[in-house]
Automatic annotation (TrEMBL):
This is Cytochrome c oxidase assembly protein subunit 15. Pathway: Porphyrin-containing compound metabolism. One of its GO terms (molecular function) is oxidoreductase activity. Its main location: membrane. InterPro entries: COX15/CtaA_fam, COX15/CtaA_HemeA_synthase. GO terms for cellular component: membrane. Pfam families: COX15-CtaA. The chain crosses the membrane at residues 25-45, 84-103, 115-139, 145-166, 186-208, 228-249, 261-281, 287-308. Keywords: Cell membrane, Disulfide bond, Heme biosynthesis, Iron, Membrane, Metal-binding, Oxidoreductase, Transmembrane, Transmembrane helix. It is found in: Membrane. It is a multi-pass membrane protein. GO terms for biological process: heme A biosynthetic process.
Length: 313
């Protein structure tokens, strides 16, 4: 009599697709990081930067505004921005938890995709650094150098948050370029010049009327018109490089993803140029300046996605 062989059941396949809640939380983190840039700009535009004149307390002896403060409405605007920082911190913490829980491949307490899990800590570290730098900014009386650093650090956090969102939809294999080496080099030069444009933008703001303190404005001391022209020249060069990238990814027959990504970079760049000239020729109205700050954040998002679109994992 033949005894039938018993075959062990095949192991269930591991689902490699990320949980949809992971993407939602990472996207919410990007939105909040961009949002706090705009609200921080509103603090500056309304002259509320010292609405809470000390840190970490709002006034000595109280973490919240008190009725007898001489700062008036400014204290509530500044305190509201500080409160939003806490919301952003919670979102950054949720990023860590979400990647640990829902990144494919988790085994018990061991997170799936360790590289992505390590990257998930960066937004939280950025929020902590922002809180410290924000305190230094208040304690130095809104020194334009610390205000500029505060904004530029926000741009770094926005870029990292965008990187996390993109990486969550990719694998962990070594990146493989999808375009020629020369196109990748042009993209890196474009991104580097974009960083210079952002830095020059902080110098323009730090030389103009919106210091963040309505009573005692602190400025860099540069001629606002001269630094605005320098910033505009850098923007024009940057725009030319973006146009070159849009043409390049089409000439080398790149996949759809980089074509779309760099088309969005061009759209945001042109919109930023229009808003920039509008605010210059209309005397820097607060609403237009706030729109320009939103555009700067969106430019960082699109540039990050554009650079990452040139390789696959």
């Amino acid at each position: 009599m033949t005894i039938p062989s018993v075959t062990a059941p095949a192991p269930a396949p591991v689902d490699a697709s990320p949980n949809p809640w992971l993407r939602r939380i990472l996207l919410a983190n990007v939105v909040l990081e961009v949002g706090i840039v705009v609200t921080g700009g509103l603090v500056r535009l309304t002259g509320s930067g010292l609405g809470c004149p000390t840190w970490p307390e709002c006034v000595p002896g109280s973490f919240t505004p008190v009725a007898h403060q001489p700062q008036g409405i400014h204290k509530y605007i500044e305190y509201g921005n500080r409160t939003l920082t806490g919301v952003v911190g919670i979102a950054a913490l949720l990023v860590i938890v979400a990647v640990w829980l829902w990144a494919p491949g988790r085994r018990g307490w061991r997170p799936g995709r360790p590289a992505l899990f390590r990257l998930a800590f960066l937004p939280m570290l950025g929020v902590v650094a922002q809180a410290v730098l924000g305190g230094i900014t208040v304690l130095t009386g809104l020194n334009p150098a610390t205000v500029a650093a505060h904004f530029l650090l926000s741009m770094v956090i926005v870029a990292i948050s965008t990187l996390l969102l993109v990486r969550a939809g990719e694998g962990d294999a070594a990146p493989t370029p999808v375009v020629r080496r020369e196109v990748g080099l042009l993209a890196r030069v474009t991104v580097a010049l974009g960083a210079v444009v952002l830095a020059l933008g902080t110098v323009v703001t730090g030389s103009g009327p919106h210091s963040g303190d309505a009573a005692h404005p602190t400025r860099f001391g540069f001629d606002p018109r001269s630094v605005s022209w320098l910033h505009a020249d850098a923007v024009m060069l940057f725009t030319g490089l973006v146009v070159a990238m849009v043409v390049a990814v089409r000439l080398v027959d790149a996949p759809v993803r980089p074509r779309r990504a760099w088309a969005w970079v061009l759209v945001v760049t042109l919109a930023q140029g229009v808003v920039g000239y509008l605010q210059y020729f209309t005397g820097l109205p607060e609403a237009v300046v706030a729109l320009h700050m939103l555009g700067a954040s969106l430019l960082v998002v699109t540039l990050t996605r554009g650079l990452l679109s040139l390789r696959t994992r």
